[in-house]
Amino acid sequence: AYGLSKAGGQVMLLHLVDRLMERQLDAEGAALLAEAITARGIAVRLGAASTGFVGTDKVEGVALQDGTVVPADLVVVAIGVRPNADLARAAGLAVNRGVLVDDGLTTDDDSIFAIGECAEHRGSVYGLVEPAHEQARVLAMRLAGKSAAYEGSLLATNLKVSGVGVFSAGAFEAAEGTETVVLRDRNAGLYRKFVLREGRLAGCVLVGDTQGALFYLGLIRSGQDISAIRADLPFGEHYCTARAA
Ligand SMILES: Cc1cc2nc3c(=O)[nH]c(=O)nc-3n(C[C@H](O)[C@H](O)[C@H](O)COP(=O)(O)OP(=O)(O)OC[C@H]3O[C@@H](n4cnc5c(N)ncnc54)[C@H](O)[C@@H]3O)c2cc1C
Fold first, then answer.
1. Residue in 86, 113, 126, 128 to alter for ligand 1 test, most ligand atoms within 8 A of Cβ
2. Could you identify the atom of ligand 1 that is nearest to the CA of residue 115?
């Protein structure tokens, strides 16, 4: 969208649910991102369920469920990951969104395993390379006769979305038993949110400035106690390490 907009196109982003990147961002981060994208000249329309294209020889618009038609000369569609599980389904394996596997990456036929984008583990279908590598490592160990279990992957998103830095990782929605530390500067388009559980960093969202993203990811992955640095957490690695020293 940003590329088309920079090339002089009049761009509208249609999104099905009521916030952008709903799997990667909390509501406030998503709202800030939508504001930043709008400020770059891209119109954002949320809750837009498309029902079809309008046009005769070429596309002339996108029809929405609410009856409106958004005029368009060009439509770019991004609809996420859909595993091709037809082969598994035809073979009689249990399939939901993907081929269902347990922590041993075993399907409901214990002589058949599934990993990667076609596999559904604990309700998740990962559309990324890293979880597939982690699954492959576990399965290789099991096939070599060693004990290993796959308990899911900690996903991190680290992107530029229409020129806006966006990072998120871990359990970034506040929940019972969590504390939230937030640094926000709405006018500067800055939002840094940290969710702590039992003195450890459980999840984090950064919008506008993603500095320190890998440092935070390391803290989440290690599960180390961060009580001593929590006041400096939003300000990045330098402040945190200086405090800890
Ligand atoms: C445009 C694009 C950009 C992406 N960018 C990133 C990125 O930046 N970072 C990231 O982590 N991930 C990215 N991904 C996702 C990543 O490519 C996938 O998660 C990854 O390739 C999944 O690996 P896989 O081995 O499970 O499946 P695949 O790579 O899809 O491999 C499955 C293979 O099985 C073959 N196959 C299918 N059916 C049959 C059959 N019946 N018989 C025999 N062979 C069959 C297919 O031809 C294919 O070669 C991107 C994907 C796309 C499409």
1. 128
2. 26
- Residue 91 near ligand 1, beta carbon < 6 Å: no
Query: Kind and range of the H or E element at 87?
Result: helix 86-90
The CATH H-level (homologous superfamily) assignment of domain 2-71 is: FAD/NAD(P)-binding domain (3.50.50.60)
Distance 25 CA to ligand 1 centre (A): 25
Q: ∠ CA(131), CA(25), CA(27), 5° rounding?
A: 155
- Give the class (CATH, top level) of 156-244: alpha beta
For the chain, give every domain's residue range. 2-71, 86-143, 156-244
Q: Which superfamily, per CATH, for 86-143? A: FAD/NAD(P)-binding domain (3.50.50.60)
The complex scores an ipTM of 0.94
Q: What is the pLDDT of residues 92-142, one digit of tens each?
A: 999 999 999 999 999 999 999 999 999 999 999 988 898 999 999 999 999
Cα(104) to ligand 1 centroid in Å equals 21
